[in-house]
Amino acid sequence: MAFGFVFPGQGSQSVGMLSGFASADAQALIRESFAEASGVLGYDLWQRVAEGPSEQLNATECTQPAMLAAGIATFRLWRERGGAEPAVVAGHSLGEFSALVAAGALEYAAAIDLVRFRGQVMQEAVPFGTGAMAAILGLEDAGVLEACGEAAQGGVVEAVNFNAPGQVVIAGERGAVERAIEAAKARGAKRAVILPVSVPSHSSLMSPAAERFGERLAGVALRAPRLRFISAVDAQSHEDPQALRTLLVRQLSSPVRWTDTVRRLTGAGVAELIECGPGKVLTALNRRIERRPDLACLALEDDASLEAALSGAR
Q1: Are the C-beta atoms of residues 251 and 93 closer than 8 Å to each other?
Q2: Quick one: which of 13, 72, 187, 269 has the fewest CB in 10 Å?
């Protein structure tokens, strides 16, 4: 049975994540992966994950390397326990870096340094408190796009995460986002709420960050992935290193098309989607996108879920 791995991005982090992998060998492998990342960062990343405080872990310059390390530690644990390589990999936003490391296109240490820098330039691109993101629930994509168009009024507010049918995230300037919330409610949205972040990720306001990131990425080696990689930027397969480089830059100021990506994964013959990293945010989204009894969606959260997934994928 063909299966794919999907890697989560920011928002799935939490203090104490990966503690469900409680066996001594699992913890040793996880600590080893985090030690490698700490060597690049110059601080103890595992301590921040294990002990917090959450404000420190949730700072985007820390969150991004922490989520990458968590995804790769989980992937290494899967492989060390005898798990086969997936037929295809994909990632949600930041998770694309984890997917490319797992696929052998990007060295782990280089990726840690890249995502730390990515978080830094994202935070610096928009003055703190002037940007915002909001989740719009229970409204079709077209209605969200209409609400953004009405609310912009010369400002910036855009649909940036097409996460699942009836679940779209918007981002932009705070005032425009607040107007878009009201416009979405007027169109019948069941809920529309500001998210607790200040960086308007994947909006055009991230263009300066994308330019700086591109300059940094130009000096990093990229190879053709050994596993099929589907990008959430355009829901297409990519293997050319230069195309991957372009995608990773474009990704910063382009929407995450997760609904289309999951449909591309399942259309490629995948019968099981396994979330590789903390939490089960993507697993919940995947089930909403593809309501099929023949598609298994599961998350590697702890020893028990890992063993269950291994039993089904061997």
Answers
A1: yes
A2: 269
CB-CB neighbours of 123 under 10 Å: 17
* Identity of the residue numbered 185: K
Q: pLDDT tens digits for 66-114?
A: 999 999 999 999 999 999 999 999 999 999 999 999 999 999 999 999 9
Cα 10 to the chain's mean position, in Å?
A: 6
Do residues 85 and 227 touch, judged by C-beta distance below 8 A?
Answer: yes
Task: Let me know if 202 is a catalytic residue.
Answer: yes
What digits encode the pLDDT tens for the residues 219-255?
999 999 999 999 999 999 999 999 999 999 999 999 9
Query: Residue 138 pLDDT more than 70?
Result: yes
Give the torsion through C-alpha atoms of 55, 178, 9, 297, to 10 deg.
120
Write down the pTM of the prediction. Answer: 0.95
pLDDT exceeds 80 at position 313: no
Task: For residue range 276-285, list pLDDT tens digits in order.
Answer: 999 999 999 9
Q: What are the distances in angstroms from CA 305 to CA 170, 264, 297?
A: 33, 25, 12
Q: Which of 61, 63, 67 is nearest to 8 (CA)?
A: 67
Angle, vertex CA 38, rays to CA 209 and CA 112, nearest 5:
35
Count CA atoms closer than 13 A to 114's CA, side-chain side.
30
92 is catalytic: no
Nearest residue to 115 (alpha-carbon basis) of 63, 152, 188: 63
The CA distance from 60 to 117, in Å, is: 10
Which residue of the set 12, 92, 202, 254 is catalytic?
Answer: 202
> What order of strands is seen across the sheet that includes strand 131-137?
157-164, 167-173, 131-137, 191-194
Q: How confident is the model at residue 258 (pLDDT cuts 50, 70, 90)?
A: very high
